[in-house]
Every structure is written in C-alpha cells, then in structure tokens.
Design a protein that fits this description.
alpha/beta; single chain
Length: about 130
C-alpha cells in the first residue's frame, strides 16, 4: 500500500481569537453593552476564547471586578470563555482576593515548561 502526499503546503488553521478592549474608567452603565459586545464576539469565534485586553482599565476597583465577573458569566452561558491580556498585578490580586479565577495570556500553563525542571520524582529520593 502506498500513500502519495498532497501537493503544496499543509493547511493550517491560524485563527486569532477576537479581542474585547476594556478602557477605564469603567461605569456600571457600561456592563450591559460590554456583555452584548462579548456575546457577538463569542458568536463569531465559534465557541473559542475571547481575549479581554485590560491594560488600559485603570486602577482596579469593585466596578472592575463586577464587570469581569459578569463578562465571565456571559461567556460561560454562551459556551465560550474569556482570557485576560496584560492585567495589572493589583487587578490580579483583587480578583484573587474575591475568589475569581481567570485565564491569563502568557501564564505558564500556556507555554512550555522551563528547561531543567523535573516533572517526576523517584520514590525514595529526598525532596530538594
């Protein structure tokens, strides 16, 4: 049995997730409109992730936490998910304080493990 490889370059799906940019200062009146924008992006993404650009969101506060929680709930109800891009460490600390977990672009889970890190430990070896 023989197999001839197809001519030309292989087909690669290089889709980039859509981006929802959040810029501060945020107001509670913006929540419904941003949730509608997110639903539209999720519909176009086909259930994939939507990246929320939060670098220009300003000083994080409870309005920011409320907005991100509602966006995450909207995404889950629509069958998708959101991923934060360039969050301020203060925002991450505040989200952690209130118990909200978000996927963040560039987290170690999305990259290869650093060189020299052992994944397994032999039984009987001392912990280093």
């Amino acid at each position: 049995m023989s197999y001839a490889s197809p001519a030309g370059l292989p087909t690669v799906d290089s889709t980039t997730p859509p981006v929802l940019t959040l810029a501060g200062p945020l107001a509670r009146s913006q929540v419904a409109g941003l949730c509608d924008d997110l639903r539209a992006l999720l519909k176009g993404a086909g259930g994939g992730p939507v990246v929320c650009e939060v670098a220009r969101i300003g000083a994080p506060g409870l309005t920011t936490v409320d907005l991100l929680a509602r966006l995450q709930l909207t995404a889950r109800r629509s069958g998708g998910r959101i991923r934060l891009r360039a969050p301020d460490p203060a925002l991450l600390a505040l989200l952690d304080l209130v118990g909200l977990r978000f996927e963040v672009e560039g987290d170690p889970e999305q990259r290869e493990p650093p060189l020299g890190v052992e994944e397994e430990v032999e039984s009987g070896e001392a912990a280093v």
